[in-house]
Specification:
Helix content is about 50%, strand content about 20%. It is built from 3 helices and 3 strands. A hairpin with a 2-residue loop joins strand 1 and strand 2. The protein is rod-shaped. It starts with a helix and ends with a strand. The mean pLDDT is about 85.
């Protein structure tokens, strides 16, 4: 095997390694999923801010593979409103409610 063939095999191996390293796993998102989740998080935050009855600064938003997690200490009557609002946003697959009602 000459140098050119060995070099081409080396480059192919590096390319394969790069593809495998970027592949998503159940615990880690791929690049495309991360970008999608960032867009969904932005849409959710914008919708919460646009609602005049909700205090969006009290609601934390995280997204992983289309599942949106809402958390924070909020007024009890704001929880169902926030959940309903988020469920209607394009790209949201599921909503996990970790919001705690204030006393």
């Amino acid at each position: 095997m000459n140098f050119a063939e060995r070099f081409m095999r080396f480059l192919c191996g590096l390319a394969l390694l790069a593809l495998v390293a970027c592949a998503p796993t159940p615990q880690r998102e791929g690049t495309g999923e991360y970008i999608d989740d960032t867009i969904i998080t932005g849409k959710v935050k914008a919708a919460l801010v646009a609602d005049p009855d909700l205090k969006a600064t009290q609601i934390n938003v995280e997204t992983f593979k289309g599942t949106v997690q809402l958390s924070g200490f909020v007024q009890a009557d704001h929880i169902p409103r926030a959940l309903s609002l988020v469920r209607r946003i394009d790209g949201v697959k599921d909503v996990k409610n970790d919001m705690v009602p204030k006393r």
